[in-house]
Amino acid sequence: MRLLLAVVSILTHSIADPDDCSSFINRLPPNITISESTPSNTSLLEVNVNATAASTFIDQVDFYIIPSELSVFLLDHFKSLHVGNKWLLLLQKSIDVEYIYQEKNKYVLNNFQITFLCESNTKVMNVSVIDEDDNGPVFANTKSTNCTISGYTASSYREYTGKIETSPGGIEAADGDVTGNNITYSFLYGEPFGFEDYFIINPRYGHVNKTREVIEGDPHSFMMIIQATEMSTLGRTKIAVLEVGVHENIPVASSEVKANKAVLLVLQIISGIMIVAFTLGFAFIVHHRIKKHIVTPQVPDSSNTSKFDSMEAVTEDSFILENTIVLTETNQMNGGSIKDTKP
Ligand SMILES: *[C@@H]1O[C@H](CO)[C@@H](O)[C@H](O)[C@H]1NC(C)=O
Ligand SMILES: *[C@@H]1O[C@H](CO)[C@@H](O)[C@H](O)[C@H]1NC(C)=O
Ligand SMILES: *[C@@H]1O[C@H](CO)[C@@H](O)[C@H](O)[C@H]1NC(C)=O
Ligand SMILES: *[C@@H]1O[C@H](CO)[C@@H](O)[C@H](O)[C@H]1NC(C)=O
Ligand SMILES: *[C@@H]1O[C@H](CO)[C@@H](O)[C@H](O)[C@H]1NC(C)=O
Ligand SMILES: *[C@@H]1O[C@H](CO)[C@@H](O)[C@H](O)[C@H]1NC(C)=O
Ligand SMILES: *[C@@H]1O[C@H](CO)[C@@H](O)[C@H](O)[C@H]1NC(C)=O
Predict the structure, then answer these.
(1) Are strands 42-48 and 10-12 parallel, antiparallel or unpaired?
(2) Ligand 2 centre and the CA of 32: distance in Å?
(3) For residue 148, what are the CA distances in angstroms to 151, 238, 284, 341?
(4) Which residues sit with their C-beta closer than 6 Å to ligand 6?
(5) Minimal CA–CA distance to 144: which of 203, 206, 226, 221?
(6) How far apart are CA 5 and CA 336, in angstroms?
(7) Residue 39: left (phi > 0), alpha (psi -120 to 50), or beta?
(8) Going from the N-terminus, what domains does the chain have, and what CATH number goes with each?
(9) Which of 151, 120, 158, 148 is nearest to 247 (CA)?
(10) How many Å apart are CA 44 and CA 61, to the nearest integer?
(11) Distance from the CA of 68 to the center of ligand 1, in angstroms?
(12) pLDDT digits over 120-144, tens only?
């Protein structure tokens, strides 16, 4: 607090006192920081002025506050004052971020701007507000007690990539205060080295994704420290531990592989039978054709007819061959015992 107070009181030492609005305005700093503990009647800004020269403008120094929804509310916290040969900006009333949150429709005051006016000259000053009684984030869905670090566990499979489901619930942190600042998530640390090759964390929602397949030689258990950071001036943080175990393929997946093997075996048997049937059929056709060719010359009719007959015979044979295959296939498909036909 002592340190903050030192920061708060900005004394603008002048080489030469400002003697007009323009030089006065230029002497104001671009930003200041106020904390909740800054007491009432603290001077936030001080500018030495030559009382004689300044008298023409100093009492006309004015200011307003942005954002507009807070301008009236915050205006009575500040006062522009001219005492002797000094101009001051006084904090008349301490700022309480939680009080403003309640009074001003859940407005989270982290910073605002004061615009100073002196005749036609303006200067915008940023004011950061430090919420000192800020409680920092709290992790939800964990079995944490008051004195232990929050913990999550998850298990995944080697080949899986995507969001991992954590237990006892999803990774989630919320501001421990009424102000409800937004939270961002990040990995603070993790083991083994290189864990970030396998996992990423969504900064906004805290979801952890496994991004890569874990192969046999890779580590199968990981530990990560997740940090939740409050999006406020102080940026308070809290950590939680996530442990992830990676397992071999799910049993269902391996039975699928087995099933595929069975299907493969059936297909192999069927194609084997088809090849045999085709060979037999082909041999039959060839045999039949040779027989017909031998027979044909003995028929006294024209060679055209015999050719036709011969073609008809081939078609007929093909039909028989096709049927044989179809029957064989149907037989297998209808549950014809595979094991019996297994060579
Ligand atoms: C003041 O705040 C505005 C917006 O919040 C920012 O763009 C600007 O850089 C700040 N100026 C200083 C001097 O911090
Ligand atoms: C003013 O802003 C600068 C940069 O944004 C920062 O480093 C500095 O601490 C600020 N000063 C005060 C008094 O807030
Ligand atoms: C602040 O100063 C005013 C006069 O300038 C005085 O009336 C008031 O009591 C002071 N407040 C505190 C808290 O010191
Ligand atoms: C104050 O300003 C007046 C008028 O500009 C000038 O005569 C006088 O010397 C100044 N005094 C100091 C101490 O700078
Ligand atoms: C945690 O602390 C609060 C008060 O600080 C107390 O009421 C509560 O019983 C504590 N819980 C555990 C689990 O210790
Ligand atoms: C994380 O995984 C989910 C699916 O599980 C996906 O929709 C999302 O895009 C992934 N996020 C990143 C950053 O890869
Ligand atoms: C918090 O995040 C939400 C979106 O996630 C955004 O609309 C809102 O402006 C953020 N609040 C602050 C104070 O940054």
Answers:
(1) parallel
(2) 7
(3) 9, 12, 84, 66
(4) 162-163, 200, 202, 209
(5) 226
(6) 91
(7) beta
(8) 16-130 (2.60.40.10), 137-247 (2.60.40.60)
(9) 158
(10) 15
(11) 17
(12) 999 999 999 988 777 778 888 776 5
The string of pLDDT tens digits covering residues 196-242 is: 999 999 999 999 999 999 998 899 999 999 999 988 777 888 999 99
Which atom belonging to ligand 1 lies closest to the Cα atom of 126?
A: 1
Scored b (16 or more CB within 10 A) or e, 240-276 reads bbbbbebeeeeeeeeeeeeeeeeeeeeeebbeebeee
Taking only the tens place, the pLDDT of each residue in 150-200 is 889 999 999 999 999 998 889 999 887 767 788 999 999 999 999 999 999
Q: Which residues contact 8 (CB under 8 A, 6 or more apart)?
A: 32, 33, 34, 35, 38, 42, 44
Q: Is the beta carbon of 334 within 6 A of some atom in ligand 5?
A: no
Give me the residues paired with residue 226 across strands. Answer: 187, 240
Write out the two tokens for 86.
Answer: 């000094």
Q: What angle do CA 312, 316, 321 make, to 5 degrees?
A: 145
CA distance 295 to 269: 38
CB 76 within 8 A of CB 90: no
Q: Which two tokens stand for residue 20?
A: 């007009």
3-state secondary structure of 10: strand
